[in-house]
Amino acid sequence: IDRAIVEFEGDFFIKRFFVTDSHGNKIEDLENLERIKRALAEAIGGDGDGTVSVVKSTANRGIVVRRAGLVEGFGERKAKAERMFSLMDGFLKNDPFSLQKDILHHVEYTVARSRFNFDDYEAYQEGDAALGNGGLARFSACQMDSLATLDYPAWGYGLRYEYGLFRQIIVDGFQHEQPDYWLNFGNPWEIERIHVTYEVKFYGTVEDVDRNGEKHEVWIPGETVEAVAYDNPIPGYGTRNTINLRLWAAKPSNHFDLEAYNTGDYINSIVNRQRTESISNVLYPDDRSHQGKEMRLKQQYFFVSASLQDIIRRFKEAHNNFDELPEKVALHLNDTHPSLSIAEIMRILVDEEQLDWNKAWNIVCKIFSFTTHTVVAEGLEKIPTDLLGSLLPRHLQILYKINSNFMEELKKRIGLDYNRLSRMSIVEEGAVKSIRMANLSIICSHTVNGVSKLHSDTLKMRTFKDFYELWPEKFQYTTNGVTQRRWIVVSNPSLCALLSKWLGTEAWIRNADLLTGLRDHVDNTGFRHEWKMVKRLNKMRLAEYIETMSGVKVSLDAMFDVQVKRIHEYKRQLLNIFGIIHRYDCLKNMDKNDRTKVVPRVCIIGGKAAPGYEIAKKIIKLCHAVAEKINNDADIGDLLKLVFIPDYNVSVAEMVIPGADLSQHLSTAGHEASGTGSMKFLMNGCLLLATADGSTVEIIEEIGSDNLFLFGAKVQEVAELREKGGALKVPLQFARVLRMVRDGYFGDKDYFKSLCDTVEVGNDFYLLGSDFGSYLEAQAAADKAFVEPEKWTKMSILSAAGSGRFSSDRTIREYAERTWKIDPCQCPF
Ligand code: NTF
């Protein structure tokens, strides 16, 4: 028996099902059919006559796999029900009081009786809260899940953007950005705290005041905005501990501008009030370029000021001596975006709480720790002093004072090495005088973290060398991780059940180290068979999605080869596309007999480009142009397909990652600080094709270099290769592919010219040309492994088995023990 086919009646009711053999013939053997029917009905909670309610199907665990193993439905209805299933799978997992089941029965009842169909509901279906850009934000979300699950007493702070990251739509192969007004139909998961509000001030002047005969500077702000707290509870898994993500929304302050009202300028004063509301309106969509925009700076200060007022208020409720602050409060700067909090907390302690400067500084330096998520110095955030001085005049003064104290101390330590002093200064002199937020963060933090071993080495040897030499003890690395609760349990329920079955426990959900236990079963053919079934099921789900999104039908026997992440030159999606062009070119020039030996591929690319990032947008367009050519070439058929999945986001990732056979992580060595996508693929038994960059180096330590396809220049070689410039050797295949694009083989010759220029010999900063040869070799090795399914499956199992170290639980435990020095704090009831 190959498959059971299910026909749906309405959207949720199974009308009929039957089974087929591997040739698709219906099996009429009634005894067999009865057995299957019973198993299926039992699995989905019905009464065995074939008319069963799907909504009840996932009420207990384990069912998912049985259902998954048996059911392969077709068409839209199936896709909808499947979506409903996966929604419920996550929902029903951990429900000690069966409340959610009751709710679902209610939903079932309501949906079944209403005159709407599923599509009507779908329009209101909750989407992602896309409150971040890429790796940095998604990593934070994983950290929150781990903090809660491991019972740590922690809060996250952020902004409640009304417009999350733009929705990407593709028109004619071009990216267009559409606003994501995600709060339109409400957000049931948040709790508005109308009583938790703080005033945040901007602009104004600094004036001298006399305090006990001493002169003190005090800020007289010019504009006031109200920050309102919205709490988003984050429940831990298998614990009652629930932590909070407090997001701030801007509201106009209730302090009326009496002057304006009295002079009759009513309308204008309302317009001004509305302007202040816009602070938390929209997320800036550039993930690593900082343009020194006023609104962005306002957002950062708004976030920092409200959060610190909240933290200090809670501290003061229970304590009256700021000496205790470092014992009670640890503040972690997740990249430099909140680093204005250093100046703000100094302002609060010195100006408002009237602590002596040195005393305040000593306290503050014990509170902060810092993680940087960037590699290159140019990527670090700088704020023009003009902008800062006008928006936050008192903070600029404080920053100057922190810097002059630091410079004095530094001179004592290193002497008058002016070059080094100027490199380490918080203030960058130059065409645009600015504040270096990373230098500020390092100076004030007791610990500076990199996000992988390689990244940390780069920070110590290159980016922050001067600081490392001054304070070697501050520098640590804490390798990133991802939460298996989202990336296996929620997004891959079939794998989840399989893991629990073969590991004999669900404990891996809270302790990912147990995944190493899979190694014990790698030689068991039964296990490997089930493993393959799970992958196939997930490929099916992905194939349906691809067909719905792009109309391209893909073969489940092909290797699903995926690259999904933000589009960046350093991530080298272009290398992937060039590889695909090369593969296509080879197929076209191949003898028909030889084609039978070729491994069919479905190449899947997805990711958003920052709206102003021209080259990234051209990469998206090229991907579509190449796809158009290949997918419409009947001569090539299933041997090669290329699909661009639009609007890559967390929900899409949950579908794509479990269905991938191979995933690509192609950053030029030394450019990806860590990379967390690779960890999600690894957990889902997807093989990696990658450069020795970021956390891949540590992944190799866990799974061994035999279980992934490594290629490309090593980080130590990159500088030398760049120096060679025009004298660099580039394979002929690369030149040929480049020529094809230049000559207009995929159309839009003029449009692609500037894109081609970026990888021309002598100009190829990210070394696509010099890595191309070894990239093709790695691809060939992947093809070779794929035709041996047992070998491939073993590699896949060993990948997942080695993924435990890349759980964010490990990351968080390291931060808690080494950086924050906090203990778990279990909920007492
Ligand atoms: C990203 N940084 C890095 O580019 C990734 O390598 C890393 O895995 C994640 O942070 C998480 O540490 C950013 O997104 C940013 F914004 F800092 F550039």
From TrEMBL:
Keyword Transferase assigned to the entry: answer is yes
**CDD domains xref list:** GT35_Glycogen_Phosphorylase (cd04300)
Domain spans labelled ACT: 1-57
Q: What is its EC number?
A: 2.4.1.1
Kindly give the PROSITE patterns that the UniProt entry links to this protein.
ACT (PS51671), PHOSPHORYLASE (PS00102)
Q: Which GO terms describe its molecular function?
A: glycogen phosphorylase activity; pyridoxal phosphate binding
Q: Which GO terms describe its biological process?
A: glycogen catabolic process
Pfam families to which the protein is assigned, alphabetical: Phosphorylase
Report which reactions are catalysed by this protein.
[(1->4)-alpha-D-glucosyl](n) + phosphate = [(1->4)-alpha-D-glucosyl](n-1) + alpha-D-glucose 1-phosphate
What does this protein need as cofactor?
Answer: pyridoxal 5'-phosphate
- Keyword terms of this UniProt record: Allosteric enzyme, Carbohydrate metabolism, Glycosyltransferase, Pyridoxal phosphate, Transferase
* GO cellular component annotations of the record: cytoplasm
The record ties this protein, via PANTHER family, to: ALPHA-1,4 GLUCAN PHOSPHORYLASE, GLYCOGEN PHOSPHORYLASE
- What family is this? Belongs to the glycogen phosphorylase family.
Q: What does this protein do?
A: Allosteric enzyme that catalyzes the rate-limiting step in glycogen catabolism, the phosphorolytic cleavage of glycogen to produce glucose-1-phosphate, and plays a central role in maintaining cellular and organismal glucose homeostasis.
State what protein this is by name.
Answer: Alpha-1,4 glucan phosphorylase
This protein's species is: Cicer arietinum
Q: What is the lineage of its organism?
A: Eukaryota, Viridiplantae, Streptophyta, Embryophyta, Tracheophyta
Its gene name is LOC101509211
